[in-house]
Each structure stands twice: as structure tokens, then as C-alpha cells.
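Hi R.,

Quick one: here's the TetR/AcrR family transcriptional regulator sequence you asked about.
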Amino acid sequence: MRAKSVTEQARRAQIVSAAIATIAELDYAETSFKAIAARAGLSSTGLISYHFRNKQELVDVVFADVLERFQSFVNARMGQSSARAELEAFLRANVAFIREHRADMLAFLRIRAHAAVTDGGIADSDHVALAALLRQGQQAGEFRAFDPDVMAVFVLAMRNGVVQRSGALDLDVCEQELVAAVELATGG
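And here's the predicted structure, written out as C-alpha cells:
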């Protein structure tokens, strides 16, 4: 397989961006190559077909693209000096990505059930990492006694609720309340 030229890479990125916007606006079932081509300003759906065999391949690329950018965004904001600060940074980074990339998150949620690729066990790894962080905070005396695995489920459920309802929420208020609720729950 030959390497894609800079022009081909740019066209592919343009199509992915248009697909995200189209899925966010129209939902998965209503999204077609025709609608994506119109949003991208392409003269033909053939330009999409040149880069993606079918809608499934495009959806899989969109899913992986948004997931990778979300993880990179959150990870870049981690590395705080205490478990409490790390937990707060995690929550704020999640909401910040949602705030800055609402269409991406909406498209991600709308295609999640349709993507052939998976999140690579991200939900499980998020849970394991968060439970470990909570244990660390307990050992350091930063958090009260609780079951870290159960608390991780609760924290992630609240975060996921924000993601699912992000279009209907004031995210500044949501961020404040999410951080406060987790702080109260962990004994802050």
C-alpha cells in the first residue's frame, strides 16, 4: 500500500471533519455520503468513496479519531501532585473537551453503537485507573474510606451522564457541580 500524499491526507481530514459535523447535526441514520459531500463542499460523493470504501469505514475512522483526540486532550492535563488534584484535573479535562468539541462528542455518542472498531477497552481501563487513583488518595489520607471500585463506577457514571447530555447543559455550571459532587463523595 502506497503512502498517502499530503493532498490526500488533507482531503481525508476534510471528509472526517464534515462527517463529524453531519452526524452531529443529522444523526447516524440520516448521514449519507451525499450529505457529507455537501457539507464538505465536494462536487461528488465519488471523492468520499475514493478515500472510504463505505459508510462503515468512515464511521470507524470518525470514532477512532474522536476517541484518540479525547484521550490525548485529557492525558495532557493529568500529572498533578496529589490524588485529589489529579481527580479534579481528570474531571475538568473531560468537561473541557466536551465544551470545546461538542459536535465531536455528539457524533461519537451517535455512532458508538455502530462503530465496528471498539474503544479498545477504554471504559475498563478508565475504571481501573480511576480506582487506583482513589486507592492512592485513600492511602495518602486525601479521601475518606470507601470502596474504590464502586466509587470509580459512580464517578464515571456522572462523567458519562455529562457527555450524554452535554448539548442540553450549561457546561460551566456542570463542571462546578461535577467537581463538587465528587469532592463530597470522596470526603473532600
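The chain has nine helices and no strands.

Cheers,
M.
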